[in-house]
Design a protein that fits this description.
312 residues; mainly alpha; 14 helices; 58% helix; elongated
């Protein structure tokens, strides 16, 4: 601070009222932190406590400490705690019944000893007398920075390590225990074959919807190559239950006409019969069926094989 705060300012009515109102709020928030049974409410009470502490710093002229209190503790550390609670789950964070009794007793004893040690340190401590700062000395933020990174470097790095450990712990706690056994590839195949033997469920992958139906929509059934009818299992079960699936005729009427040709009409105009497949002319592009090959297509050179090589 550039100048000492006058002694008369401490006795001013406005500052006294501000201090006592803030102090009462801080005590109430502290009681809420300790007495609240919900982890979220306890964290919110801690946020209120830190904001009141930052207000006291600002009222005393320590603007840098007030900003650090809001940005670092309220904005970073407490938000990290709230994120941990959200990631783990409120129900999991409030589950006190699984805590062993001896840990709760040890916590109360440790807290009581901490209060005794803190009270003794406050009673025996001697605060130095304030000294006026000359214009040639370093500014307050510069002195704080030098003190942090010279005299308290180990404590600063230790606090950073704790924050990293807290973040890693939060990520680890989000991975819940597996409810079912993890089947490997061999066990998965054996389970599929056993289900096929018991219920007749096909062990392979389901047919993709829309096959041979001139559509790739998920609500259109595929067409069986054996029965040339829609495969019900190719449409997701949710769509079928909600009556959101469509028939092949609604999407591709021409496919129904070609299926009828496969069954009773001209099979050369069918969909997937043997005659319909054989009636498709080849294009000369490596034996692929279809129309004429596009011009300018680079094909591999034709290899001439002699009769002797063919016989061998």
């Amino acid at each position: 601070m550039n100048a000492l705060i006058p002694a008369a300012a401490w006795a001013s009515l406005g500052q006294s009222v501000f201090f006592w109102v803030t102090a009462v709020l801080m005590v109430g928030c502290a009681i809420g932190v300790a007495a609240s049974k919900k982890a979220v409410r306890s964290a919110i009470a801690m946020v209120g406590l830190m904001l009141c502490l930052a207000a006291l710093y600002v009222s005393l002229g320590a603007y840098f400490l007030g900003v650090v209190q809001v940005v670092v503790y309220t904005g970073a550390i407490m938000m990290l705690i709230l994120f941990v609670i959200m990631m783990v789950g409120v129900v999991a964070s409030d589950n006190y019944t699984e805590t062993p009794r001896w840990t709760r007793i040890a916590t109360w004893i440790g807290g009581a000893l901490g209060v005794v040690f803190l009270g003794g340190a406050l009673l025996l401590s001697q605060l130095p007398q304030p000294v006026a700062q000359t214009a040639s000395e370093e500014s307050n933020p510069t002195q704080i920075a030098l003190s942090l990174f010279q005299n308290h470097l180990f404590s600063l790095e230790f606090a950073g390590t704790l924050l990293i450990v807290a973040a890693i712990g939060a990520v680890s706690l989000t991975h819940s225990d597996r409810l079912t056994k993890l089947f490997k590839q061999r066990e998965t195949v054996e389970a599929k074959m056993a289900r096929y033997a018991q219920t007749g469920t096909h062990p392979g992958s389901l047919v993709a919807p829309g096959v041979y139906a001139n559509s790739t929509a998920a609500d259109v059934p595929a067409i069986s190559g054996t029965t040339e009818s829609g495969i019900e299992s190719s449409v997701p079960r949710v769509l079928r239950i909600r009556d959101l699936d469509r028939s092949i005729g609604e999407v591709a009427p021409t496919a129904i006409v070609r299926i009828n040709n496969d069954r009773d009409g001209d099979q050369r105009k069918g969909l997937q019969s043997v005659v319909a497949s054989q009636s498709v002319p080849e294009a000369g592009t490596w034996g692929m069926p279809g129309g004429a090959a596009p011009e300018g297509l680079k094909q591999p050179p034709t290899v001439q094989v002699s009769a002797k090589e063919e016989s061998e």
